[in-house]
Amino acid sequence: MIDALVVGAGLSGLVCATRLVDAGASVLVVDARDRVGGRLLTGTIAGRPIDLGGQWMSVGQPRLAALATKLGVASVPQARDGNALFGLPPRGMLSRLATAFAQWRLARRIEHISHAPPRDAHDLSLAAWLAEHTSNPTARALIAMHAELVFAADPASLSLLHYLRTFAATGGFAPRGPDLPGGGREHRFVGGAQTLATKLAERVPVRLATPVRSLVAGDAVEVVTDTGGLAARRVVVAMPPQLARRIEGAFPAAPSAASVSGPVVKCFAAYDRPFWRDDGWSGEAYRPDGTVRATVALEAILLAFVVGPVAAGWSARDPDERRAEVLGALTEQFGDRAATPLDYLEVDWGIDPWSAGCVASLPPGALAVTRREPHGRIHFAGTETAEAWPGYMEGAIEAGERAAREILEAR
Ligand SMILES: Cc1cc2nc3c(=O)[nH]c(=O)nc-3n(C[C@H](O)[C@H](O)[C@H](O)COP(=O)(O)OP(=O)(O)OC[C@H]3O[C@@H](n4cnc5c(N)ncnc54)[C@H](O)[C@@H]3O)c2cc1C
Q1: Residue 356 lies in a domain
Q2: Residues spanned by the domain of 286
Q3: Are residues 281 and 337 both part of a single domain?
Q4: Residue 176: inside a domain
């Protein structure tokens, strides 16, 4: 019988499995999909590789930087030269002060939460907190948009404590740390972030197209999959909590309150050249009230993010209408040349059955449902269980390393 079966060939499960193999354990990784990488997926548009899922490495993420170096995956700084566009009501001095003050108050709470664990009973939604504490509409809109982009969640259904706790675990509004090699605060991986997963998968046995349906723990763990039964001394469940909940027997009891998926749609429009630079724009643009909340340039590609409530029903709409709406938003921002890209592509993570969204976030009153302690022979990994950088690649690595350590210590 093998020592460990890892369910989930995302970054977290693969890091866990390679750690175990390096320590001499026998391991098998299984995944429901027909590919490895989970929320890391590289695609192409106009012949250029793009990250359809997770993309950027930030400062203050030592595990991700070390893993990329170890695997020989190079990274390049995200270009930011030029001006960013803010499609907001005119931002007078008063709005700027109000935003800075609201952020300062949130930052103080983040600081407090880093020292004293929050009490669930005092939770409310971020939108409710903003309505109570910030009368300036621009300040509210800016903070809400920032939260939508980070959590892919509607601020009206986002737990304030989860919001504060996540920022406390990710270095606040502006994570600190030295600039990444070659400069820049964010880097992208050459050839796409999925390369990290495909390179790790070369080092461990992986069985694809094998959805796990239930776990039966006794002296070992029996693993029931769509393609037959497997057994292992220990099992690691390495996936978002809302998918782990669907595996019968994974949790000792169903958690009372549930994390929810954050829908996000990434839309790519490729052009022959970055024409927006001619007018001094960087390609970065934000709009708190538009379909496209944020736009980022990846060389001659504009990446538009549709998040929160607008993203929830996105794929039910007519594809031509969706494309026209996104290109319309880009045209408003960068002029007529944005209307006719060489190619256009969108990926809706909210309808992906094996991701169920971007990252899991919590509604008010649902703190502390993320399980990271093992129960019996079943262990938990996945970015959502990380202490630092939950929701990010960095967190996925931390959680995978921790689950491997638990298993090695139990041998
Ligand atoms: C659009 C988008 C943008 C993002 N941007 C960034 C970014 O810029 N920077 C950053 O650091 N992070 C980003 N992230 C988050 C990052 O991608 C994730 O934190 C990370 O990839 C999660 O890895 P994981 O292994 O924890 O989970 P996953 O990658 O979700 O892996 C879980 C695996 O479990 C499998 N699985 C699920 N259920 C079963 C089952 N029953 N049986 C078998 N297998 C199952 C799934 O198929 C999947 O492969 C982004 C994510 C998305 C979607």
Answers
A1: no
A2: 264-351
A3: yes
A4: no
Token pair in block for residue 288:
């708190």
Q: 214 with 151, same domain?
A: no
Picking from 377, 359, 131, the residue whose alpha carbon sits closest to that of residue 237 is: 377
CA of 355 to the centre of ligand 1 (A): 6
65 and 111 share one domain: no
Of residues 232 and 136, which shows the higher confidence score? 232
Q: What angle do CA 191, 195, 200 make, to 5 degrees?
A: 160
**Domain shared by 332 and 393, yes or no:** no
Measured in degrees and rounded to the nearest 5, phi and psi for residue 287 equal: -150, 110
Instruction: Determine the angle formed by the axes of helices 62-71 and 393-410, rounding to 10 degrees.
Output: 80
20-53: per-residue pLDDT in tens?
Answer: 999 999 999 999 999 999 999 999 999 999 999 9
CA of 108 to the centre of ligand 1 (A): 31
Distance from residue 240's CA to the centre of ligand 1 (Å): 7
CA of 313 to the centre of ligand 1 (A): 21
- pLDDT tens digits, 282-302: 999 998 888 999 999 999 999
Q: Single out the residue of 297, 305, 324 nearest to residue 264, CA to CA.
A: 305
| Ligand 1 pocket by Cβ (under 6 Å) | 7-13, 30-33, 38-40, 53-56, 211-212, 238-240, 243, 247, 264, 266, 349, 354-355, 358-359, 382-383, 391-393, 396
Structural domain includes residue 184: no
**pTM flag (> 0.85):** yes
**pLDDT tens, 87-105?**
766 667 777 788 888 888 8
Q: Does some domain include residue 195?
A: yes
Number of structural domains the chain divides into: 3
